[in-house]
Amino acid sequence: MKSLVVKRSIVLAGHKTSISLEEAFWKSLKEIASQRDSSLSALVTAIDAGRHHSNLSSALRLFILNYYREEIAIRDRRKAIPEQVEAIPAEEIVPPN
After folding, report:
1. What is the DSSP letter of 37?
2. Tens of pLDDT, residues 20-42
3. pTM
4. E-strand spans in the chain?
5. Which domains does the chain have, with CATH numbers?
6. Are residues 64 and 32 in contact, defined by beta-carbon separation less than 8 angstroms?
7. CB within 8 A of 30, min separation 6: which ones?
8. Cα angle at 31 between 28 and 37, to 5 degrees?
């Protein structure tokens, strides 16, 4: 049976290290790095520098979870904007000059 956890080598702050993550997390890290116009190594280095107590694999998983939670929150706020505009009574809307 094939392991769900994939171990990869990555350069962090000039040093090569191995990180074990599930393939879905590796894919997510690559997507996030691409969206930020960053390399995978630079993104992981930044996450590593900002972690406090957890091991690196856990810090990466939590970063990905928080990233996608924030994406959902942003999407939800954008969806709510038209509802908020519709809820404003017409007499309260001031046309632009």
Report:
1. T
2. 999 999 999 999 999 999 999 99
3. 0.76
4. 5-12, 15-22
5. 5-88 (1.10.3990.20)
6. yes
7. 40
8. 140
